[in-house]
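From: lab user (bench 3)
To: helpdesk
Subject: output format question, protein + F0G

Hello, I'm new to running complex predictions and I'm not sure whether the block I got back is the full result or only part of it. Here's what I submitted:
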Amino acid sequence: MKHPVEPFRIKVVEPISLPDREERERILRESHYNLFKIPSEKVFIDLLTDSGTGALSQEQWSSMMVADESYAGPRSWYKLKEAIYEFSGFEDPIPVHQGRAAEKIIASLFLYEGAKVVSNTLFDTTRANFESYGAQVYDIPIPEAKTLDDTHPFKGNIDLKELEDLLRQKDISLVIMVMTNNTGGGQPVDLDNLIQAYEICKRYNTPLIIDACRISENSYFVKRRNPKYSDWSIKDIVRESFKHCDGAFMSAKKDGLSNMGGFLAFKDPDKTLRAKELLILWEGFIHYGGLSGRDMESFAVGLLESLDERYLEYRAGQVEYLTYALKEAGWDVMLPPGGHAAYIEVSKTLSHIPREQFPAHSLAVEIYREGAIRTVEIGSLMFKDRAKFEFVRFAIPRRMYTKSHLDYVIDTLRKIYERKEDLKGYRITYEPPFLRHFLADLEPIN
Ligand code: F0G
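Helpdesk reply: Thanks, we reran it on our side. This is the complete output you should expect:
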């Protein structure tokens, strides 16, 4: 597998360093074996998340210098509004500081105690926000999504038959299509699947909202994997996607190529107005929604940069390179490679560690111990007994790491595979009431 040539050169550098083994062990102890608690300066390669962590372009940096920080009507807002319109076709978007701010507004507008939500698979913060409003969530990905090495090209698709059954049998308040499906392995949703899901939702008068944080990556896969769209531009696929929904929200920390930002938009002017009222209460005025003018400038430029097919080809190529190399090193991986991360599944490889002792977390800790590389567990620690897989996710920040960084990650995983039987389980010593993986304390079981 070849690594793609980066379609950029590096102009600004940020030094990174590798703490020695003794220090890494101490840091793990002091962080209570929770990788979220490790200071980033003690991390050599940080693959915790692709959210807000990417490198900015020269165009983004220069736009930030001319940002307008006015409270009402800043120039930077109009520029962002125009970019969101060009990207999505939404004429009256609402800025938010990140995706979960939009999730809270959506929850407040659509949900109530006992409400029901259907999705191809909600992300953890979305689910937690919805559940905090008393909603019940049904994740219904297609059956192929549940098999690690099934190479269905669109494992992010929603199960259309189950969707129709649920809409017929239950009073569903909301359907969310997550594009790509992060929790399910960064897998794309076919545009045709979205179109059909929206048709069904319209028949049952149920609103469909797109979680669009990785929609440029999703559209790249639509172009590559569905021959019907092979001649379309990425921008046309993105815009076509947004035609088949009642609203959308987007964390700009992903395909907005920004460090901060997001937007929320509805086709219904009444919903838009009510969302604006809540925005002022929680986020800020409707012309900045928790963002500085600098953030809005960087977001406006980054959003349109994410449509560049050469960039998307390089990005998908990096994920593919890492995924197949990890597979060659012996690990089970989610196939086909997804959009923003490689995923190792450890149920078989670490079968000596029971689920209650978090085998994927054990590997994530070991990856830090061995190579000061930070990844994240997406398994029983994050999702308790709802976890379908025991994943370690290697999220690749955008435009940041080179081939040699990824080769270092691959070497580290080769070494760990050789002594995989030595890995031990973990137990939780402190557990917060929700989203426990962020704040939990753990200790190794000896
Ligand atoms: N939806 C999806 C599919 C996400 O992946 C995320 C965040 C959000 C919503 C929430 O957006 O972070 O801006 O509030 N995902 C990050 C991750 C945190 O690491 O996958 P946010």
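A quick orientation on your result: The chain has a mean pLDDT of 97. Let us know if anything else is unclear.
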